[in-house]
Amino acid sequence: xxxxxxxxxxxxxxxxxxxxxxxxxxxxxxxxxxxxxxxxxxxxxxxxxxxxxxxxxxxxxxxxxxxxxxxxxxxxxxxxxxxxxxxxxxxxxxxxxxxxxxxxxxxxxxxxxxxxxxxxxxxxxxxxxxxxxxxxxxxxxxxxxxxxxxxxxxxxxxxxxxxxxxxxxxxxxxxxxxxxxxxxxxxxxxxxxxxxxxxxxxxxxxxxxxxxxxxxxxxxxxxxxxxxxxxxxxxxxxxxxxxxxxxxxxxxxxxxxxxxxxxxxxxxxxxxxxxxx
Length: 277
Known about the structure:
Blueprint lengths: L1 H12 L8 E8 L5 H6 L3 H10 L12 E15 L2 E12 L4 E10 L17 H17 L7 H15 L7 H12 L4 H19 L2 H21 L4 H17 L4 H10 L4 H8 L1
Parallel strand pairs: 1-2
Antiparallel strand pairs: 2-3, 3-4
Helix pairs in contact: 4-5, 5-6, 7-8, 7-9, 10-11
């Protein structure tokens, strides 16, 4: 069904040369910094917005827009030689449930900074944004077909590997490790089941509970495989955080399936148990 939707979108947008892929909203918090430092950061928000929203992140111009929320919390500033290096927390999420939190980000920025894609040397701001854009795209594209997000995860990994070897190496080891947890063979069944989950969600919205259940049961079978091999899989926990309510609605009243979900996802057991009644 989602494939049909994409074909439909293609027919009506094929004439567009610059279809938008990422549509980001950005919030930056730095009010606790001295006023002079705040003034130096005044252009940061608009720069990130332009960088994320005005670029063709994929080769497929007919892809639907991906709504993304970005929050940056500037913690501190230190001077190193001629550079001002900011320490920050970063949170990025998409409306379909992709979500990443990074508490170990350092970047350089000053008035007049040039946001530019495809910089040769690792840039701790632009390449950091590239990395998380590709992480979001990888997860989103997986929902349209069998591991279609792989090329974007590969792009993210390439950036992470370059970051590890750069003079701005802080945090890149952890980012590469987190990415490999998603693309690991033990997580693959969940990635392969994501198209079925979004088919189930589509049918639920259309009121077709039978087809919704059929697709959702395939997802649960995939989840069971992940749990068997890696019960504490972080990516699976994030998936449940984003989507457990959909499972509740689809299987409301089905004690057998809901009890299985309690076993897989104890963090949301109260929601599953309430739906058993």
